[in-house]
Amino acid sequence: RKCCGKPELSVMVGCDITGLDYDEMSERIKATTKFDFVYVHKKKDKGFGHIHFESWEESSQFYYSTKDKHFYYDGDKERGLIHFYGATYYNSTRKVVYKMDTETANTGTLTSVIKISDHNDINEYERKSPKFSESPVSVLYGLYEDNHTFNIVLHTLGIRNKADLLVSSVSNKLIIIEGNFSEKSVPGKSIKNFLPIGPFKAEVELPSGVKTISVKIEIEHGVSTVTLEKITEIR
C-alpha cells in the first residue's frame, strides 16, 4: 500500500479507544464521518491508532475538518470520546504539516455524531458525566538539566503507556507535550469531582536547543519524564 510508511498520508485517532481493534475502530470512524480512508492501523491494547488515506489532500481535509473537536460514537455513548490528532514522523517529534485548503477544509461534515460543544439538549448521559474540557488543560511541569540533557517532569494522571504521550516541537527550543486525561469509572454517585478529564497540553520553552528526533519517555506512578538531548555546540 502506498500510504504505508508515509505519515503525511495519515491522521492519529485517540481518547477512550483502548480495547478496540482496527476493525472496530474502522467501523466507528466510518459511522462518525463522511470521509473515505484506506484502513486504520490500531492495536487493541493501545489508546491510539492511525487512519491511512490515499493522498495528502485527503488526509489534510480530514485533519482540518476534525482537529480540536471531540466526538463520541452515537451507537456507543458510554464508551467515551473520540479525538483526532495530527500525525508525527516515525521516531521523531516532528509533526506532519497538512495541506491547508480553506475550501476543502470546511467541506467535511460529520454524521452520526454529537459534538459536545454544540449539543444543547442536556440528556441523561451528559447529566451523569462530569465536565469535559473542550480546550486542552495546561499541566504543571518541572524542567531540569545536566550536561547533556533536559528533563521535563509532569504529573500525568491516568497515563500508563509511553505511546499515549505525544511530544512535538515548534522549534528546537519550544517543546509541546500532549495527552488525554481519561475518566475513571468509580461505583456509586459522584459528590464532588475536580479531576481533569480530556486533553492536556504543556508548552515548554528551553534555554537552549535540543535534538528533536531524540526523545526518551519514562512513566512511573502517574509521573512522566521526557528526556531530550541537548545540541552540542561546536566551538
Automatic annotation (TrEMBL):
Superkingdom of the organism of origin: Eukaryota
InterPro entries on file: A-crystallin/Hsp20_dom (IPR002068), HSP20-like_chaperone (IPR008978)
Pfam family, one: HSP20
Transmembrane regions listed in the UniProt entry: none
Family of this protein: Belongs to the small heat shock protein (HSP20) family.
Protein name: Uncharacterized protein
Taxonomic lineage: Eukaryota, Fungi, Fungi incertae sedis, Mucoromycota, Glomeromycotina
